[in-house]
Design brief:
The chain is α/β, with parallel strands linked by helices. It is built from 2 helices and 6 strands. The protein has helices spanning about 30-40, 105-160, and strands at about 10-20, 25, 45, 55-70, 70-85, 90-105. A hairpin with a 2-residue loop joins β1 and β2 (about 25). α1 runs parallel beside α2. The longest helix is centred in the last third of the chain and has 55 residues, at about 105-160. The chain is elongated and about 75 Å long.
Length: about 170
């Protein structure tokens, strides 16, 4: 019986982030921080250059003004992301959340509230979706490896059948 050790190394990820609150720069923790933490907890490794990455993530999150009523201001957040295989450019997983509502005493705080409310969704919805996409790719590779190993074992067994028995000596024809 032949055993093959396959050491699974989680992919290296480069994340490009655009996060804005009401069109301006984000002044606190956004969606990217939650996504990075969660993926790191699942074994993904982050790198600083595209060429070092296996996967590229394009994350966009932008809040926008909603309405004002009785001194309460509403803002909505739209989040979108695309995971691509860096080598092929193929989309591995994509998705997002739209209209995550934040309500506060001014628009800027309402926008920040919408970011705060979206972070748990990243942890509970987006990351599992990414992991499912990655796991289905891994399962496909595992099936390919299983077939290759099975073929190797069959070849190796046939090769052994064609070998002379160690205890049997073939007479020298000369």
């Amino acid at each position: 019986e032949t055993h093959v050790v396959i050491d699974l190394e989680m992919p290296k990820v480069r994340m490009k982030v655009t996060e804005t609150n009401l069109g301006g720069p984000l002044s606190g923790a956004g969606i990217a921080q939650a996504l990075r933490e969660e993926l790191t907890n699942h074994g993904f490794r982050f790198v600083d250059r595209d060429t070092d990455a296996d996967l590229l993530i394009d994350l966009r999150a932008a809040s926008r003004k909603g309405t004002e009523s009785n001194g309460f201001f509403t803002a909505y957040l739209d989040v979108s992301y695309v995971f691509r295989d860096r080598r092929t450019g193929q989309v591995v997983h994509e998705g997002g959340k739209h209209d995550v509502k934040g309500v506060q005493l001014n628009y800027e705080k309402a926008g920040m509230e919408s970011f705060k409310k979206a972070r748990p969704d990243v942890r509970s919805d987006l990351v599992p979706g990414i992991m499912n996409a990655f796991n289905s790719t891994y399962r496909s590779l595992a099936r390919i490896w299983k077939v290759a190993i099975s073929d190797f074992n069959i070849f190796h067994q046939n090769d052994r059948k064609n070998q002379p028995d160690e205890n049997h000596r073939t007479p020298n024809p000369y």
